[in-house]
Write a structure and sequence with these properties.
This protein has 466 residues and is an alpha/beta fold. The protein folds into two domains: 201 residues, no CATH class; 199 residues, von Willebrand factor, type A domain (Rossmann fold, 3-Layer(aba) Sandwich), CATH 3.40.50.410. 53% of the residues lie in helices and 11% in strands. Pfam families: VWA_2. This is VWA domain-containing protein.
Length: 466
């Protein structure tokens, strides 16, 4: 019995229905006609011929398609006259179709047995759903529009760390408020408008000691995560912002290295990490902020770095621009409360827009994948149910043929085993087809999620140099 399936074939097969289907009733009628002619010929024989030796019997043959040898042929093979889940071998119509089958010679060869088995199969061959529908669905482009998640990806988080310069120069006033007061208000408002799914953290530096040389060591060592990376809490962040005031020196380089450790648990492969550094001055603690920025960029957290200079002169501004470039990030200089607030509002709007888009696209992709998997299993179960039904009808029909004296017991057993092997390979082919389609679905899912994430990463809070 030929194999129904090879792994390579399932990738490339195209299920195409034949232009027409053979009428099973015509086949049954032809078998009836042959049997009637045979009886009439026997009745017309002269009496003298009855005593002579019988001529050699012609080989048994019914004009019927061979049994399918692969899944494509299963789909295109004509549906049987008795292809119904309610069909029973004892049904009158089924028995009539079996009655007209001429007796098989005791010496019938394997070809004749296969032909009889093919005829019985043709009576009950079920209607199989075409897998091409699912194959087409797996190839539907799920590329997301850029206008407008595997288990590890479902655990992805959006993390924002704000680094705030609390050196003595932040005491400078703009209008009626100090730069520190303006920054604190802007940070509180910014954090409150981030997506609900986001975590936020706040690190400050230079908030101890004074700007004197005597306090330099203490002030340069002052680098503290006052609000650890966690979901936003209005009261919690407000309390953290109230713990410090502008005081000493500017250990900018060390703050970047510390931020790398703050976010170390959130690997960039599966998490989105964004750092905002707000400073009104350059490094004053003998660190190398450009080197620290390069280290941050090369780290596993893969952060997006946005540096906001607060009322900087052109000379000091250059260092922060160099730091931003080394980190692969962006730089913007703001002069007052409204500009700082506007920059944070823009960042928040971008984060919300793309986080919403990202979650929506991921959800739609997972929904499609679940739908595709459901369709694959539905198809597989439908095919297997057809196999079980066909096998039952074919094998019990062979038993009925033996009871009617149409075939010998040995012939029944041989065809029974032929049918058993046929349906065993048929079943294995369906199982392999299912697994191949599931693998294709998984590959399509992973590709779609990767593309969604790439677009998201390219667009979430990219910032522009102004």
């Amino acid at each position: 019995m030929p194999r129904l399936f090879t792994p390579a074939a399932i990738i490339f097969f195209c299920f195409i229905f034949l232009a027409g289907c053979q009428d099973k009733q015509e086949t049954v009628d032809k078998v009836k006609e042959k049997e009637v002619v045979k009886v009439e010929e026997e009745e017309e024989k002269p009496a003298s011929e009855e005593t002579t030796a019988e001529p050699e019997a012609k080989p048994f043959h019914i004009d019927v398609p061979e049994m399918p040898s692969n899944l494509e042929e299963v789909v295109s093979y004509p549906v049987g006259l008795f292809a119904s889940k309610d069909t029973k071998v004892k049904d009158e119509a089924v028995q009539e179709a079996l009655d007209v089958i001429p007796p098989l010679s005791k010496t019938a060869n394997d070809e004749e047995l296969s032909n009889l088995l093919a005829y019985v199969y043709s009576l009950f061959k079920m209607d199989y759903d075409d897998p091409k529908v699912i194959i087409d669905s797996l190839s539907i482009a799920t590329t997301p529009e850029s206008e407008g998640i595997s288990e590890e990806e479902q655990t992805e988080t959006f993390n924002v760390e704000i680094i705030l310069d609390a050196s003595g120069s932040m005491k400078k006033t703009i209008g009626s408020k100090s730069m520190m007061e303006i920054a604190k208000e802007a940070i509180q408002e910014f954090a409150s408008t981030l997506p609900e799914e986001a975590n936020v953290g706040l690190r400050v530096y230079g908030h101890k000691g004074t700007g004197s040389d005597a306090d330099k060591a203490m002030s340069c060592a002052a680098n503290e995560l006052v609000y650890p990376i966690q979901p936003y809490s209005d009261s919690g962040l407000k309390e953290a912002l109230g713990k410090f005031n502008p005081s000493g020196w500017t250990p900018l380089a060390q703050s970047l290295l510390e931020a790398q450790q703050d976010l170390a648990q959130f690997k960039g492969e599966n998490h989105r990490n964004i750092i905002y550094l707000v400073s009104d001055g350059v490094e004053t603690c003998d660190g190398d902020p450009v080197a620290a920025a390069k280290s941050l960029k090369a780290s596993e957290i893969s952060p997006v770095v946005n540096i906001i200079g607060f009322d900087l002169g052109s000379k000091d501004e250059q260092q922060l621009m160099d730091v931003a470039e080394a980190a692969g990030g962006t730089y913007v200089n703001v002069r007052n409360h409204e500009q700082l607030k506007s920059q944070f509002n823009k960042a928040s709007a971008d984060a919300n827009k793309w986080m919403t888009w990202y979650q929506k696209e991921k959800s739609a992709t997972y929904d499609l994948a679940i739908s595709q998997q459901s369709a694959i299993y539905k198809l597989s179960n439908s095919w297997k149910n057809n196999i079980f039904k066909e096998k039952y009808l074919v094998q019990f029909s062979l038993q009925s043929l033996h009871t009617k004296g149409k075939i010998e017991k040995e012939q029944e057993l041989k065809m029974y085993n032929m049918a058993k092997e046929f349906y065993k390979e048929h079943f294995e082919s369906v199982e392999e087809m299912k697994n191949t389609l599931v693998d294709a679905r998984d590959e399509n899912l992973a590709s779609s999620l990767a593309e969604i994430k790439e677009i998201y990463n390219q667009n979430v809070s990219p910032g522009k140099k102004e």
